[in-house]
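Reposting from the mailing list since nobody answered there.

I have sequence plus structure tokens for a pair of proteins and want to know whether others read the tokens the same way I do. The first protein:
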Amino acid sequence: MDKKGLSFFTIISTVICVVFVCEAAAPAAAIGNQQFFWWIFLIITFLVPYGLAVAELGTAYESDGGIIDWIRDGLGDKWAARAAYYYWVNYPFWIASLATLFPTILSWVFGVDLESNILIVLAIELAFTWIVTFMAFSPVSDSEAVLNGGAIIKVAVAVVVGCIGIWYATQNGFATDMSLNTFLPDLTSTSALGFISIIIFNFMGFEVICTMTGDMKDPKREIPRAIIMGGVAIAAIYLFASFGIGAAIPADQIDPDFGMIVAVQTMVGDSILFKAICIAFLVTLFANMASWSFGVNSVAAYAAQTGNMPKVFGKMNPKTGMPDGAAITNGVVTSLILCIQLIPIEAISSGVFWMLFGMSVVFLLLTYIPMFPAFMNLRKVDPDRPRIYEFPFKGTMMKVALIIPAVELVLAVIATLVPLSADEIADKVPMVIGFAALLVIGEIVRIWSARGRKEEYKGLTPELAVQRLAEEAAATED
């Protein structure tokens, strides 16, 4: 096949494979019908400018470090180190949050009580954690079938849930109020505002498109199309699945932990279909973590090589070329996170999935905030760099277009962490404490990692940009 003959369908499919995650459907559904407004609003104000910015950065500044290297070039080592830490630390919390789903769902599948004994619960959760860790030891090519198969299964699960919801609604009516006013945003609903961060989280990962530039027929035209159409496709899948969940359970009663599975159980009971969806859902969790592990571990290893993460992350397997040091560290840290369930505190033991998943979301969103000022600075100091795709706005329009998504990220982090009502205090205080502690640890890690580094990189200057272009041109001629 011609290298530059990659079909647009394949590009969109790859985006969906990386970006779409089943476990985020329930928290999104908990927003209620107003999520339709927020999806459209955030596609326009967040996804489009974010996606077009990463399209320019990814095609102009190719590197193994991805977003971390863009931030390093734009803002220097300090912010690159912070972003690398935030990007990494989100992953163990994500694995831990998904691990907490396994004991309950397996109990439903096999009809046995696996949740009454905390040691059995931890054993199941640790088994998932270390299976994912060992999967990360293999090169990407060895896991291609797992990743592609997982993508098909998770889209199929979402579609089936939506279809069951339509059938259930025709038979029993909607459990959720479908009046017109429910589709309008309610800024007084603190719980809904807290879950809006999930919609932004569901757009993270579109930079994968930039790795496919060499296989596109017309990247300048196809990149923005893939970002916009991919975002719309993912929004449609989530909304269809959320519709199915909302058909069975009122929005204000949706459990962010098991909302999708409970909705299916409500609609079809403990049937073979219910058990099949449970198993398929669990399979998608392995696929999600496998697809993200390669990117997270590689970025952490790259950051370690530049003195922005501890050296253990930079240890590579000489046979496979994989960052085994980062993978093992992930497994150890995730295991320690799961052990907080041994603490006899109600706020921790109840709703543990959302507490851990919320922490993961917060740190992933934090990673992308410095990308926007880095982009603007690189445009300023490196205007002559060849750009396959250019952000469509310049000057004040460009600043406005990039400031808005950065502000949305900050507000999403605040809405996720900060108790916006008295009812949220008990649930969110542990998250706030954990967040503050992790920020302090991050600064310690940043300073520790920089030991022995001869000189701190301040980011590209106009002079360095010219020098780098000359070096790249010479390397191309050779």
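The second protein, same order (residues first, tokens after):
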Amino acid sequence: MHDLPHLAARLYGTPLLVARAKLDVILGALGPRLAGQAISFDSDAVPSAEMAVTPDGIAIVPVIGTLVARSGYLGAASGLTAYSDIAESIEAAATDPGIRAILLDVDSSGGEVGGLFDLVDHIQAIRAQCGKPIWAVADEAALSAAYAIACTADRLYVTQTGELGSVGVVAIHVDESAADAQAGRAWSFIHAGAAKVDGNPHQPLSDSARATLQADVDALYGKFTALVAERRRLSPEAVRATEAGVYRGDQAVAAGLADKVGTLRVALADLGAVLARTSISHPIAARKEVPMSEPQGDIPITAAAPQQPTTQANADLEQRLRAEYSEISAISAQAARLGVAIDPAEAMAKGIRPEALRRTVLDQLASRSDAADLVAAAPAGATPKAETESPIVRRARDAAARHGG
């Protein structure tokens, strides 16, 4: 029972981005706790939240269960997924040179507001820095907060019976004053600040408390609808016209909330085909594609077929290109932290070498007053120059000169 106040505080009197049906389930589960009854979670029913990687380099990142800012010790037992865990998985996939694309496997009815929009911004920043495609599939639900995450993808799939949408915000207030009176309990609040005890469950919701909570809900709703409108290329009016409705399969595509009806297997096949075409048009070696069976429960990832290069030269070229792309991605990430935008995929497509890219960043930063903050990968032992020049910039320039002249 010691965790009950924490659970209640995360559910009542605060805006939530969760579908109504899921909210009913949560309230039904928490109700017995409020009445002093014990409840248990079926851990066997909780799906795995581990990231998987297909043989052709697609990372499958799960976005499953009720989404919260922090899951804590309850996460594994109750099916909670923390936004921070999703961010870490996506970031790990984006920075892994062996991973070429990311697919979000979404099956969630939403969750908390706290941390959601920060995660969305982080996903978009990661995409801009790594240049890897990020797709998503709703299998079987991407609702409310989960849809906010799914719609950040470059392409969004939904299964035939999958549910999308519920673009809305809800807040709950439970008035227990009548039950308190029947139990012979009377609550007195000694407080400073008129709004300090607004929305507490032992008093009816006051007009001022209701207005404050409604204003918060409205502001978050505006932020949510603006996000969906931008990512799905819809007008804000069209998003609001959904009235937080839930759309299945073809209906979701017709409403502009998804791009295609298809399973996880279909999305993987389509994404693999795009990567294969990209590998032909860009100087990045592709992994051999391996057919995948329709997932049943856990996703069966077939073993990677051994790749047999025709010559040793091909193998050497592949290794060099992978190392080169990894170095360019690292330079891009460093440059982004200093406000210099670089597209790694475009740099590779144009045949720009890492040393040339590093020189470009240095040239742009040389005119700025914050050039001393530059972090550039360069071997130690560079020859010192003028005492007034930053040692970090000096080492980077020496490294660029040795590699590219």
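Reply #1 (J.P.):
I read it the same way you do. Residues 5 and 34 are 9 Å apart (CA to CA).
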